[in-house]
Amino acid sequence: MLCRLHFHLATKLFEMFSDIVLFSLCLLITGILIFVLIYFFITLSDLECDYINAVECCAKLNFWNVPKLWLQLAIQLMLLLFGRWALFLLNLPLCAWLVRAFWLLPKRRRVGVEYDSSEIYENARIREHMWGIGGHFAYQMMGMFVYLYCLLDAVMNEPVVMEQDDVEMLNRPAAAKEIYTPKHYDTGSDL
Question: Does the pLDDT at position 117 exceed 70?
């Protein structure tokens, strides 16, 4: 009985939130992720130009690794809960890559430390990190346009209830024929 009540409350909660809310949240989170990735680009380019030292750069970047992962997983969870399977599968490779970089790499001494100040100058690691961030950035930009398209589609498919047709154009009812008839102008030339 209690399980049915929880299921009923969960379905009412999902009915209350429409696709418009889902895709608006996805756009917002994706925008935040894009700004974080731009911050990563700027910080790594500052390190490359020797404006900051490696320890400071890696501390700044490692701080944002955890929120970056959780924000991406929040998008993934929302898509899963709302049953958007195609978008869920589209985001799955990126989530797997972020989880792998966060947790499963055997070189890492601490969980969540992707940037190591002692290794960042070795074997062109800065360029490798820049390429990884560039791929992640491109993925997020693609996702942003997909979510924007889905949001516009959800807005267009949302039912609108109107009591009466009160649309007017130029202070005339919209059904007036002279508004919609095109005017032909004689230019005086035969084509």
Answer: no
pLDDT at 136: 92
- Print the SS3 string covering the chain: CHHHHHHHHHHHHHHHCCHHHHHHHHHHHHHHHHHHHHHHHHHHHHHHCCCCCHHHHHHHHHHHHHHHHHHHHHHHHHHHHCCCHHHHHHHHHHHHHHHHHHHHCCCCCCCCCCCCCCCCCHHHHHHHHHHHHHHHHHHHHHHHHHHHHHHHHHHHHCCCCCCCCCCEECCEECCCHHHHCCCCCCCCCCC
What residues are paired with 29 via a beta bridge?
none
Domain ranges in the chain are 18-155
Tell me, what's the pLDDT at 66?
85
The owner of tokens 């949001």 is: 151
- Backbone phi and psi for residue 136, each to the nearest 5 degrees, phi listed first: -65, -40
β-strand partners of 172: 169
**Banded pLDDT at 60 (limits 50, 70, 90):** confident
Angle at 55 between CA 30 and CA 67, to 5 degrees: 20
The number of beta carbons lying within 10 Å of the beta carbon of residue 176 is 12
